[in-house]
Amino acid sequence: MAYLHHLTIVVPPGGTDAVVAFYAEVLGFARIPKKSKSEHVTGAWLQLTPTVQLHLSESDLPPHPSVHFALVVDDLAAVLDKLAARGACWHTQSDVLGSPRGFTIDPAGNRVELIQAADTLPAAAG
What we know:
InterPro entries: Glyas_Bleomycin-R_OHBP_Dase, Glyas_Fos-R_dOase_dom, VOC_core. It holds the Pfam family Glyoxalase. By secondary structure, the protein is α/β, with parallel strands linked by helices. The chain is built from 2 helices and 8 strands, in the order E-H-E-E-E-E-H-E-E-E. It has one domain: Roll (2,3-Dihydroxybiphenyl 1,2-Dioxygenase, domain 1), CATH 3.10.180. A 4-stranded mixed β-sheet has the order 1-4-3-2, covered by helices on one side. A hairpin with a 2-residue loop joins strand 6 and strand 7.
């Protein structure tokens, strides 16, 4: 058995605070303390779920244009409102397994796929 513990994305030097604000304000992530061995690395850690974290690592390397991660959200419409309020882009994609989805870009240029949770979709009119 395997499960995801964390993923790391690159942010430009000095860009951590803007990226932390994006994930906190748009998606409700909480900043958490970095472990002692990682304190020398510039960046931040965020808690996504009780068991999954997002690590931000400052680097001069640009993000790869096709690399992304996908998040399932309970209320995609509310997230889209928050993205619009921040002036963030949104690119609608075809549904996946019956759920609306699309891509945005965080302030560091990382692609993030957002998918509406299937169990929160409105029931079809019958």
